[in-house]
Amino acid sequence: MPTKKWTSRIYYMTGLVLMGLGLGFLHFQTRFSMVIFQMAGLLILGQGVLAGLRLLGQKASWSLGRLLLHLGIGLLFLSTPLLPAGLLGLAIGLYQGILGTFLLIHSGLAFANGLPGRYLALIDGLVHVVFAGLVLFYAQDYLPTLYWFLGLYLLFLGLTNLRDGVEFDLGKVSLKVRRKRIGLPIILTGFIPVSALNKVNSYLNKERSQALFLGDKTQAPDLEIWIHTARRGFEMMGHVDLVFDGISYSYGNHDVDSTKLFEAVGDGVLMTMPAENYQASLKADDWRAVFGYGLVLTPEEKAKVKANLTQLLSEAQPFALKSDKQKASYLGGMVAHYGARAYKFRQGTFKTYFVMTTNCVQLVDRVVADAGLDIVTNSGILTPGAYQAYLDKEFANPHSRVVSKMVLGRQTP
């Protein structure tokens, strides 16, 4: 892990490199992409050659198949850089199409629930899908435009990293409005939680639950954000809960009788329980680990968080489990063993759960909206991985309100 002295320098260097790449794509477009792929091919080929020499000396950890794959990709990038340049455009087109599909599903649910912003979501989804179609079917015509957008994205991403470096050195400037943060594409942030799990797995005892605590133990947090992860199902992408004033809040697709579309859609259910019972349930699990981030708030911020929770609960009503399937579910177990209470929303954004938009992390973000955290959504889509990446960055900043980090869980292979 880099020292505090080097952390800001890494932000500065990363920012400048990203801005340089962005300017290259803006001004030289396809030609710059070809140069980038040729350089990448040279690096991959060099890595393959070095691995081959080690393999001949029987000191390499690479298999022959992996070696041949690297050599093949390196030669392809070097000899025909226009091919991967075109494939990059197609990949971006597919990504935009996937985003548009998510937004259209969200707009359909928004229309069904009569939510404000439903027309904007529909237009946004259609724009993404149409743009994706143009790129996929007329790639050569739209490739320059695509690289222009990519250049702008990299430029703003670089500026975001430079701002992070300045804030690390000089501290944050308090603003009355939330700042928009340019982050990685959701396809890259989606699996950050399971990647983080793999990194800390060596510290977790495989035989029993244990806590790994980082940060200032003397500074009690006013609010905690817990990010779950595991190696199976949607939990690989993470799940986010909130603990405030001794109560935990967990929103999700907890009603097994209402799930649709491969469990991606269903009635939104809010589950609450005492914080000590919540942590006890985490320690009892043998299939996931949880990352907890502690935040300190001003009295004014605490009052706003409490008001946001009150407003959220005013839109919900108690939900009683009736069917045998519900009682045998995860929610049923939490109600029976840990005294959890369940609520369904009568109206509002969270009446219907959708894994990509109206999900657990969106609910947590709404509650902590007045706690000084940046806006990290991407086209209205927010993943637990994007939130975890942001909280990790804030925890590394000595001037941040994120003062502690805990890893809790029992991991079996």
TrEMBL record:
Signal peptide: none annotated. This is DUF308 domain-containing protein. It comes from Streptococcus ovuberis. Keywords: Membrane, Transmembrane, Transmembrane helix. The keyword Ribonucleoprotein does not apply. The chain crosses the membrane at residues 12-29, 35-56, 68-88, 94-112, 119-139, 145-162, 182-200.
